[in-house]
Amino acid sequence: MIGNKTIKDFFGDRLKQRRMNKIRNRFNMRTIWKKIFILFIVINVIVVIISSYLFFKINYGEIFLVDSNTNVSVETVNRTLLLDTINFFEIKEKEFDNLKTNKVNLVDPSL
Question: 3-state SS of the chain: helix, strand, coil percent to 5?
Fold first, then answer.
């Protein structure tokens, strides 16, 4: 039978505790968390400053300047060409419908 001591060694509880103690002795976790928290706050403050800067610039119209004298040209469609195209496709639709309803008699060329 395996003893309790070998089971604990097998699962490495002692090794994990030793490693964690070495890490804890090398680093002060409280200062690390303080640094992480301060970094988080600084990044959020920077994001808020940049966002508010962009908001006010856009709100006053200083970022996206657009000329009000732009000429708009609208090109119209040639109606006769459009109607001819529509008629062409309607004729093609009727031909396809006729092909669907009437079977085509094909003669076998090998006869």
Answer: 70, 0, 30
Instruction: State yes or no: pLDDT of 2 exceeds 60.
Output: no
Q: What is the mean pLDDT of residues 19-38?
A: 80
Residue 73 banded pLDDT, cuts 50, 70, 90: confident
**Two tokens at 17?**
């505790």
The count of other CB atoms within 10 Å of the CB of residue 104 is: 5
Which one, of 48, 27, 26, lies nearest residue 36 by Cα? 27
What is the spatial distance between Cα 92 and Cα 81, in angstroms, rounded to a whole number? 17
Angle, vertex CA 50, rays to CA 34 and CA 32, nearest 5: 10
pLDDT of residue 4: 59
- Identity (one letter) of the amino acid at 77? V
Task: Kindly state the tokens that stand for 89.
Answer: 């496709």
